[in-house]
Amino acid sequence: MAQTVLGAQLYTVRKTTQTAADLAKTFRRLRQMGYQAVQVSAIGPIETPELAKILRDEGMTCAVTHVSLDMMRDTQKCLDYHQAIGCQYTAVGGFFPSVEDAAEPRNWERFAADLSAVARTLGAKGLFVGYHNHSHEWTRVDHRRGIEILLEKVDPQVWFELDTYWVTHGGGDPAAWIDRIASTASSKASPSGGAASGGSTSGGSTSGGGGGGSRMPCIHVKDMLITADRKQKMGEVGEGNLNWPRILQAAKQANVRWYLVERDDGDLDPFDSLRISYDNLRAMGLQ
By C-alpha distance, which of 183, 192, 174, 109 is closest to 146? Predict the structure, then answer.
């Protein structure tokens, strides 16, 4: 089983990551809570060397990034960026077709082919490409869910950054989908580890599943609350209605290493939200 690491998805605190000075302060606050890693996402226009320095100075590991498909296509730029910040994983934030385009299976297949192409190119250099879901992937597309088309059509080395809230929002069971996606992991294994264990984004294997043979090295953890007027909203892990014992059991069996806490919006201050989720996950046995 993989060593587990709790990280914070920086989208949660995006209002305090827009300058280098604010980012450093944010990292300091996260470290004081106990977080050891972050997902770099939605930060301001901070130069890569400065970002790398802040990560080092504040003792924070970049577990994964969110970047666009266009950036991934700029192979050397993408590799240089991730090499500089010591990160072995990246993911696209999602595929967002129009309602009309989403109803056509060929559009999902075309996206899967595009993502697979960059995954093969970057994976050959040791940077592993994944896909982050929302809830629209659970819509039916010609008798299949969009997520099923992606899972069937993407290259086996594309990994999936499952988001527990959005799976539930789409009517799915996060634990069941962790099990299902994990069962498709390639028998070929790319280098295990990552930045925290000295991983590199150069000279990697072309085999995959996202590193170490896992189809799910990273997941997003956030809870779902329901209001008295029957509206769903995001909440802190352990404060809502998701089945965390089952989710964490499935994640452990799937060899998930990085558990990234995220809350896009909500009632509490983002830092208070991250602290509550961290404490609850530790109480559930995650380190």
Answer: 109
Convert 119-145 to b/e letters by CB count within 10 Å (16 or more is b): bebbbbbbbbbbbbbbbbbbeebeeeb
Place of tokens 């953890």: 221
| ∠ CA 223-170-120, rounded to 5° | 95
- 3-class state of residue 215 by DSSP: coil
DSSP label of 13:
G
Which domains are delineated in the chain?
A: 5-283 (3.20.20.150)
Is the Cβ–Cβ distance between 263 and 222 less than 8 Å? Answer: yes
Kindly give, in sequence order, each residue whose CB lies less than 8 Å from that of residue 32, ignoring residues fewer than 6 positions away.
none
Burial status of residue 222 (CB atoms within 10 A of its CB: 0-12, 13-18, 19 or more): buried
Confirm if 184 and 151 have CB atoms less than 8 A apart: yes
Name beta bridge partners: 5: 258
Q: Which of 162, 142, 257, 260 is nearest to 211 (CA)?
A: 257
List all residues 6 or more positions away from 231 whose beta carbon is below 8 Å from its beta carbon.
Answer: none
Q: Which two tokens stand for residue 5?
A: 């690491």
pLDDT at 186 (0 to 100): 58
Q: Residue by residue, what is the 3-state secondary structure of 25-64?
A: HHHHHHHHHCCCEEEECCCCCCCHHHHHHHHHHCCCEEEE
pLDDT digit string, tens, across residues 174-216: 999 999 999 998 543 344 444 433 344 544 433 446 765 689 9
